[in-house]
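1st attempt posting a full record on here, be nice pls
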Amino acid sequence: MNELLKYLGIIIIIIASIVLVLSHFLGWNNINAVQFGSMGAMIVGLVLYIWLNKKYQ
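the predicted structure (as tokens):
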């Protein structure tokens, strides 16, 4: 379980980046909620990754 929690931040970053790339190809460029949501998820994932790695090392 700790191994999954250690990589939870990276998983969130990867999913958010896939959504960001897909939004470009699907023509969702004008939908700001998708763009800002993906960027926010990447920031949350980065902070979560740093915090969980410090906690479980």
